[in-house]
């Protein structure tokens, strides 16, 4: 599955030169990991965000979101945000920052 390269580039720009960030192909797209923990990613035209189990309900209340479910088993703590819902840079930045903050709260891998 191809993924939205422009969305991936916008994420790269937001994360800047953070030395803790690595990119890895996964889920048929690309993931951005902070110290080995996934923060955000792109699958198809959509943004994946790791918000943590406690952040799931609040994240799902925001526009354009759905639970992350690629295998028929929903993954609590992860949401998918429709590409059109992150068209504005400030909205995308907020999601990236949320995913980055959650990944930073975890022990490095």
Automatic annotation (TrEMBL):
In this protein, which residues make up the domain named TfoX N-terminal? 19-102
Task: Give the domain of life.
Answer: Bacteria
Task: Fetch the InterPro entries from UniProt.
Answer: TfoX_N
Q: What is this protein called?
A: TfoX/Sxy family protein
| Species per Swiss-Prot/TrEMBL record | Streptomyces ferrugineus
